[in-house]
Write a structure and sequence with these properties.
Structural class: mainly alpha
Order of helices and strands: HHHHHHHHHH
Strand content: under 5%
Largest sheet: none
Oligomer: single chain
CATH architecture of the largest domain: Orthogonal Bundle
CATH topology of the largest domain: Tetracycline Repressor, domain 2
Shape: elongated
Low-confidence stretches: none
Mean pLDDT: 90
Number of strands: 0
Radius of gyration: 19 Å
Number of domains: 2
Helix content: over 70%
Length: about 210
């Protein structure tokens, strides 16, 4: 078990992470430099390495994303049905990215689709969403309502890519703010309708009808 950080060290780490989040919104992930980050934090570049390890820039950006995605993807109430979980998460996501996370989301999604190399950063952006969709699929399976042909791993992986592609279209102005939630719900629910049967399938259809 790692030792808890001393308050002064934890405060410094949190300050660096918060400045990193601001910079992601302003200049994008790839626009961040260690020199500029250190300058904005009023610390030496070496201090960032001391706090986040030898990978430096990637580690501090990963820490910022981990904090954001970890906070936004807190586990949904187990009493909710699969369809209710999808509706709750998509509604929250649409509200967040149209509001306080607008520029931040645009920068993160641009990086996701344009970064050429596999990295810890891209994995964090991708894996939180995949994990949650996989949990919903397992819940459908536990209900006995999952079609037998479904291969769950690529299903969740492909669904995340589709959702992120719609968010990119929104960021480029092709989807209006008022339409974003509806478009995301439609895209996700249609995929779950295809792999579900019985009561679960009807619950996803009801979301689109209401």
């Amino acid at each position: 078990m790692p030792r808890p950080l001393r308050p002064v060290v934890e405060a410094r780490r949190n300050h660096i992470i918060n400045v990193t989040r601001d910079m992601i919104s302003e200049v994008g992930i790839e626009g961040i430099t260690m020199r500029e980050l250190a300058k904005r934090c009023n610390i030496a570049v070496a201090t960032i390495y001391n706090n986040f390890g030898s990978s430096g820039k990637e580690a501090v950006i990963a820490a910022a994303l981990q904090l954001d995605f970890g906070g936004r993807f807190e586990e949904l109430d187990d009493s909710l049905s699969p369809a209710e979980k999808v509706k709750a998460r998509i509604s929250q996501t649409a509200n967040d990215i149209k509001g306080p996370l607008r520029d931040y989301t645009k920068a993160v999604q641009y990086f996701y689709f344009h970064h050429q190399q596999a990295s810890e950063i891209r994995a964090i952006i991708h894996d939180y969403s995949v994990s949650e969709f996989n949990q919903i699929v397992r819940q459908i399976e536990a209900r006995g309502h999952l079609e037998t042909w479904v291969d769950t791993k690529p299903f969740a992986d492909d669904l995340v890519t589709q959702v992120y592609a719609l968010i990119v279209k929104w960021s480029q102005g092709y989807i209006a703010d008022r339409s974003l939630k509806k478009r995301l719900l439609q895209a996700v629910c249609l995929q779950f309708i295809a792999i579900s049967k019985a009561k679960t399938r009807k619950e996803f259809i009801d979301i689109l009808n209401n």
